[in-house]
Amino acid sequence: MSPRYRRPKARKYGKYALSPSERAAVYYKGRPIKLRDIIPYFLPAISLILAHFVFTSDLGVFLTIAALIPIYAVMRYDARIIGGYAIGMLIVAAIILGVYNNEDAANLAAIYAYWLLVDTVVCEIIEYIREGRSKGEEGRAPG
Count of domains in the chain? Predict the structure, then answer.
């Protein structure tokens, strides 16, 4: 069969020829990993540690976790990272309740998870509004 009539090979990863980890390896191959690339993954953990160990009042916990909103909005970090932490905290709450049967600790973990979910939703709404404005400005005629 001539090469002209062969069907193109199906790509394994959709429109990309490489897997996500292979794309990351290619992206970071000649570029050093900077602190700006790593910070968004540690900020929710730092916020949770501060909320749990440093602040004992509800207002302090709220302000510590809510401080993630302006940081992620201004620096344009991906808010889904906070959502990942929230899902992880819900899993931790279920494990605490199921294995250790400690309802107070499970409730505290669930409350932290819900605050992180609120942060995620607020950051995503901010990003949605920001994208809507930028798309609206592109379609508008000058003058």
Answer: 1
Q: How do residues 18-32 score in pLDDT, each as one tens digit?
A: 777 777 777 777 777
HEC string of 22-35 equals: HHHHHHHHCCCCCH
Distance CA 122, CA 83 (A): 11
Rounded Cα distance between 126 and 117, Å, is 14
Among residues 132, 20, 133, 130, which one has the least CA distance to residue 75?
A: 130
Q: Give dist(CA 116, CA 102) in Å, integer.
A: 21
Contact 107, 67 (CB under 8 A): no
Enter the pTM of the model: 0.75
Residue 18 lies in a domain: no
